[in-house]
Amino acid sequence: MGFDFYKFYEALEASGARIRLDAGDPDHEPPAEVLEAIKRSLSEGLGYTPAGGLIELRERIAEIHGVDLNEVVVTPGAKAAIAALIHSAGNVGVFAPYWPGYKAAASLFQRKLIVRHLREELGWIPSQEDAEWLASRADLIMVNYPNNPTGAVIDLAAAKAILDAAREKGVIVASDEAYRDLAFDGSRLVMAEIDSEGVVSVYSFSKTFAVPGLRVGYVVGDPSLVARVRRFIAATYTGVPRFAQAAALKALEVMDYAAKRARETYRARLQAALKAVDEEVFTYTKPRGGLYLFLKLRVPVDGTELAYRLAERGVGLFPGEAFGGVRYKRYLRVSLTAPTADIVQGIRTAALEARRLTGGSLGG
Fold first, then answer.
1. DSSP 30
2. What's the pLDDT score for residue 14?
3. Which of 91, 206, 350, 358 is deepest in the core (most CB within 10 A)?
4. Which domains can be identified in the chain, with CATH numbers?
């Protein structure tokens, strides 16, 4: 059956773990302006909203991306948008390691998941061969950069290679850009701005603005794919709450400073995390963005067993197995969404526990 998320969470919750480096739940404060916008909107009522989103929010998003209004739909977070796209597909292609939500949605809708495992020595970046392999087998390719869990960031050439391979085979590309604003070099790659034919970019306000509970995001790109997402939203959620859309509209006004603040926060935490890594126990490819550090065990220890042991010691880390199966059993994902002191302590505790599991010996 593979790794069971629910079983692991139950064990983690039962342990009462104090240091939680498992979920990507941002802990930095939302912008004050966004919180004020929520309060104001709540006083105006809680009626229904259009399935595609409030016109003023869609117009602002269209203006940002230089597209027409029919190329934008507001969604209840990125996850609902991704589910809508997977629901309308047959074979869903992903590059591994990958966010487990893709597998969960494919399983729910009984879609086949086609996996192309990437090479760490290439920085977890898909080559043209990887892109062509996936495009020849899938109807929809999910792309996710900055990546969860590796922190990899692709450049324009790599993005075009994926899009070219997909176009040649008539394959849809959905770019999950939940971490778009968190590339540490400040780059901002939007797939649908490179080529919108058969392509959509999915955005979430959750990470940049630390408002995951609002459940608000959007899709921009190919109008036929945007229409599919809109129909899915209309048939399931009806529409995104007005107060969440009011917050999103205000968030776009303060985007630049909010994104810079979030990048600086996570880059500083990453630097502290890397200094805390025991390099006799772990190795890694340095993340170039996002909220995570993907550690590889250099000692003969099962990452899933280690994660359960750490839960007993009050530290929550995700086993690498969750991000693509047994091939990643020697990995752990560290979330940077916690105070720096907790991140450092969690990583050091993981190294000490790994040493205990090997009887204090090293080698792999």
1. P
2. 86
3. 350
4. 5-29+257-355 (3.90.1150.10), 32-253 (3.40.640.10)
